[in-house]
Write a structure and sequence with these properties.
The protein has a 5-stranded parallel beta sheet with strand order 2-1-3-4-5, sandwiched between helices. The protein contains 5 helices and 5 strands; from the N terminus they run βααβαβαββα. The chain is an alpha/beta fold and 143 residues long. It has a single domain, classed as 3-Layer(aba) Sandwich (Rossmann fold). α2 packs parallel to α5 and α3 runs parallel beside α4. The longest helix is centred in the N-terminal third of the chain and has 14 residues. 38% of the residues lie in helices and 18% in strands. Bound molecules: 1,3,4-trihydroxy-5-OXO-cyclohexanecarboxylic acid (DQA). The site of 1,3,4-trihydroxy-5-OXO-cyclohexanecarboxylic acid has 10 residues, from loops.
Length: 143
């Protein structure tokens, strides 16, 4: 099984950015842990991060063409991007939305996700473990 982990804007700054909210781990740490965990599940992971909406859309489309499952943290685009929602809706692969923080405990503008309804499920509030939980869920479907 192949999975692409897509992280959106500002997630390249994890470890430096609002550490009280997002924690000390860098995106590299998170990607390394996810890749290692995936190996045990026989999942091949590709990681991708972009601060640009269009690049995220193109990467989602590619995953759809390749038949690769998607784990996505769209960052703030979660709350604003109809275009990313449409891209997710257009691909027929497994899709899980992940957020590090529990957005429901935060500002009201973070409570709405435009993207969650076109994903199979959402995992949030568990920090970097969310990506691990998403990988585990995908592995269960494969059997
Ligand atoms: C986030 C939550 C979003 O509201 C925020 O804009 C982010 C990170 C999270 O992982 O908790 O950039 O997606």
């Amino acid at each position: 099984m192949n999975v692409v982990i897509i992280n959106g804007p500002n997630l390249n700054l994890l470890g430096q950015r609002e550490v009280d909210v997002y924690g000390q781990y860098t995106l590299q740490d998170i990607n390394n842990a996810a890749t290692q965990f995936a190996k045990q599940l026989n999942i091949n992971v590709t990681v991708f991060q972009s601060n640009h909406e269009g690049e995220i859309i193109t990467r989602i489309q590619k995953a759809g063409q390749d038949g690769h499952s998607i784990i996505i943290n769209p960052g703030a685009y979660t709350h604003t991007s109809i275009a990313i929602r449409d891209a997710l809706a257009s691909v027929r692969v497994a899709k899980i939305e992940v957020h590090l923080s529990n957005v429901h405990k935060r500002e009201e503008f973070r409570h709405r996700s435009l993207t969650a309804a076109v994903c199979d499920g959402q995992i949030l509030g568990f920090g970097p473990q969310g990506y691990i939980l998403a990988l585990y869920q995908l592995s269960l479907r494969a059997h």
